[in-house]
Amino acid sequence: MFAQCIRVVLFIAIPGFLAIDKAQAEDGPSCGGRAGIIVRNAYPDATKTSEETFQFDGSTIAINDGETANSTPHTMKCRVWPANPQLMLVAVPLIKSTNEDGTVGNLDLLVIDTASSAVKYRLLLADKMNDDAISISAVEFDTARYRLTQNQTAFGLRISTSGSSRPNPYDGVGLWLYVIENGSLRPVLDGLVVSQNGGEWDTNCAGEFQSSESTLTMSANRTNGYADITVVETRSTKTSFVEKDNECKDTTVTGKPQTLRLIYDGERYPIPEDRRALSE
Questions:
Q1: What percent of the chain has pLDDT over 90?
Q2: What residues pair up with 144 in beta bridges, in sequence order?
Q3: pLDDT top residue among 6 and 176
Q4: How far is the C-alpha of 194 from the C-alpha of 196, rounded, in Å?
Q5: 206: burial class by Cβ within 10 Å (0-12, 13-18, 19+)?
Q6: Three-state secondary structure call for residue 235
Q7: 82 contacts 24 by C-beta, under 8 angstroms
Q8: pLDDT, position 25
Q9: Which tens digit of pLDDT belongs to each residue from 241-278?
Q10: Strand positions, DSSP E, the chain
Q11: Are 239 and 40 in contact (CB under 8 A)?
């Protein structure tokens, strides 16, 4: 009844704009056999506790050096940055605890030298891995070309969340953007909802579900030096009901696309409260 997957949206570039290709948001291979080296470089005091885990300052670091990226949200992720291939992006979940009530942890963002694995920039995102009834289901890099200026390209981090309630299903994806500027790594976009699905049903047939999908386009217009970002959101409502013949039917109504323009204020792109991701 309720689609848990995230649609992949294709974009077409138009004059004066740079369209963002969602296909580049997916992680490629894992850390290429260098996860242990990266952990040693980033956390010299970490203790190896198994082939796939380290302990550091009361937190667990899980790695995966297989040929394909581990889908577990608590596993370290790596991706060479296509816009700057001499750099590799690394997301390190620092998990303090996890149980049936939820997870407590931070997320360490690293930008390392692709050749040497030396850490060049880092940013600790406190409590970013915390969750409870709405759990984090995926953490992945988005390396589409978010070109903010002629010489400045941001990279994205997408965090997917999902609810465990069967009668009230929910899943969503939030987008964060980061830049390297003046020798440091800093956020410029803090958790924009780019995909969301939710609703309520009787777990048999009858119910109503709302879905939204957003596309981002980098505008040729700049404010305070950075490109404006045009966000086009499409929302739909699906209603399911039982017909007289006891068959389950449904109808879907798609609304007119809504456009939101994000304007850089000199530090970041402010986001309306109703468009903020749940995981912040």
A1: 81
A2: none
A3: 176
A4: 7
A5: middle
A6: strand
A7: yes
A8: 46
A9: 999 888 999 999 999 999 999 999 999 999 999 999 97
A10: 17-19, 47-50, 53-56, 59-62, 77-80, 87-99, 102-113, 119-125, 134-147, 153-163, 170-181, 184-201, 207-223, 226-242, 248-254, 258-262
A11: no
